[in-house]
Amino acid sequence: MAEAEKKVILTGDRPTGRLHIGHYVGSLQDRVKLQNSGSFDDVLIMIADAQALTDNADNPDKVRESVIEVALDYLACGIDPTKSTIFIQSQIPELFELTAYYMDLVSLARAERNPTVKAEIKQRGFNGEVPMGFLAYPISQTADITAFKANTVPAGEDQEPMLEQAREIVRKFNTTYGDVLVEPEVLLPSREACKRLPGTDGKAKMSKSIGNCIYLSDSAETVAKKIRGMYTDPTHLQVKDPGKIEGNTVFTYLDAFCDDRFFAEYLPEYANLEEMKDHYRRGGLGDVKCKKFLNRVLEETLEPIRTRRHTYEQDIPGVYDMLAAGSAYAESIAAHTLSEVKDAMRINYFDDASLMHEQIDRYADR
Ligand code: TRP
Questions:
Q1: 75-111: per-residue pLDDT in tens?
Q2: What is the DSSP letter of 190?
Q3: CB-hemisphere CA count at 13 Å for 212?
Q4: CA distance 152 to 166
């Protein structure tokens, strides 16, 4: 099969802590499905530690510890190292070489225009001193994706601007140096509520720094407690009061996690989520009952993940071996692409004899 026709997935996460249910609905569950569909030639999942360092340069310990947390979360969710490759970004030097060349194709103004980066800079502040690496991380992300000629990037909505910038770089590279790189597409979750799951406080995004996350590794008790404290409709004071669904986190989570089959099992008075929502809107359905149901629904997903995680936690050396093997495999692909890139840019002085002969001829003509 010609390389360009290959179906390749590349995606990843920054290791700055354990993964939460926003990561799960936003991308992890799709990755597992895509991996098991068998319709991809290669599925590569990257732990983006170098990207995490772009705004954690002063805290490498946090990043290092989070690498293993993220790997455990991946395995717990059902990423299967016999079907997918899990690897660590910093172990693939080729990615940083590619990044250096791609930086020449992006203006400073374009880098500053990336809406996700802009929002993150605003949120973090950086005391007005944005690290170069942070501003450039979408360019480095383009290297991550193109090194493997990935066409599909399963990710949340916040990654769309990254993919747009990646496609721009690919087009510029290919028109300048010749067709080498593949234009990637983002693959968003099909359910609207999964694209950007709010935090338990109803805030826009689940974020470690706000403390509004439900982690995949949380115990059943912790999950129950977080659900009990969840934001609903502040005007829905008594059971009989009519309630609002929009912006009500319990219902947003149900939108993301619930299927009709859960009603038959746990809440048979409703056939589906629409009927339950109607009752809530009319009044007469209390938050406690909704939260108990949500807890049951979430546990259907989280319980098997937790159990699998515990198994892998007993074999940390095995997890590191898996990561080392994955990184070696990933590097072999990235090295191949880098050599094609250098060929196209005509900077592979020692591999291509014609580059030296050009110079011999130039001198001969004098
Ligand atoms: N930016 C992604 C995140 O915030 C992580 C990431 C790095 C990534 N490189 C990538 C995602 C390449 C998809 C493709 O989690």
A1: 999 999 999 999 999 999 999 999 999 999 999 999 9
A2: S
A3: 16
A4: 12
Return the SS3 of 357: helix
Closest CA to 227 of 255, 209, 201: 201
Q: Across the chain, where does the E strand assignment appear?
A: 8-13, 42-47, 85-88, 152-154, 185-187
Position in ligand 1 atom list of the atom nearest CA 10: 14
Whose Cα sits closest to atom 5 in ligand 1? 13
Asked whether 75 and 312 are in contact (CB, 8 A), the reply is yes
Identify which of 186, 184, 241 has the alpha carbon closest to the alpha carbon of residue 26. 186
Q: Is the sign of the CA dihedral 68, 74, 75, 76 positive or negative?
A: positive
Q: Which atom of ligand 1 sits closest to the CA of residue 48?
A: 7
Ligand 1 pocket test, pick from 51, 98, 169 with the greatest ligand atom count within 8 Å of Cβ, gives 51
Q: Backbone phi, then psi, for 284, in 5-degree steps?
A: 110, -5
CA 337/CA 332 separation, integer angstroms: 9
Amino acid letter, 144 = D
Global confidence as pTM: 0.94
| Residue ranges of domains in the chain, CATH in brackets | 3-196+315-358 (3.40.50.620), 220-311 (1.10.240.10)
DSSP string, 288-353: HHHHHHHHHHHHHHHHHHHHHHHHHHTTHHHHHHHHHHHHHHHHHHHHHHHHHHHHHHT--TTT-H
- 166 SS3 class: helix
pLDDT at 156: 86
- How far is ligand 1, taken at its centre, from the CA of residue 135, in Å? 14
pLDDT of residue 190: 86
For residue range 324-361, list pLDDT tens digits in order.
999 999 999 999 999 999 999 999 999 999 999 999 99
Give yes or no for residue 54 CB within 6 A of ligand 1: no
